[in-house]
Amino acid sequence: MSDVSQLFTESKWASALFDCRPFNICILGFCCPCFLFGKTRSRIKGNNPSEFTYWNENCCHWFCLSLCSCQGVIQALERTKIRNKFNIDGWCIGDWCGACCCPCCSLIQEEKEVLVRTQADGYQKVPGMTAGYLQRESVIERD
Question: Which NCBIfam families does the entry link to (predicted)?
């Protein structure tokens, strides 16, 4: 059994809360956590990555709540949604502790989890069907 499929059957987080790799996700999580929050939520919704903007609705919500130190509320609720969606073991109180006490580390862990879970085993969101144009080739008969 592959490491990824074994991870999913064990229902654990793909990385530890304080695992600071890869570097680019960690920098984003510590320097601009609202951007990482918005990016992860956009990824969960299955939005097209090419249409992603850092300053999106989820980012604004997190940022506004952080002005009064209440970002942990929305972050804990979203962390619980991720845990439930991917059937990861844990309790709601653990989500709240992670989101309120270590918000940046929690965001980094969530982003890595969503990346691993949505890209494992070749999973790709099925794009909407579109009607294409058919062209008939003309047949030229020569004598």
Answer: A_thal_Cys_rich
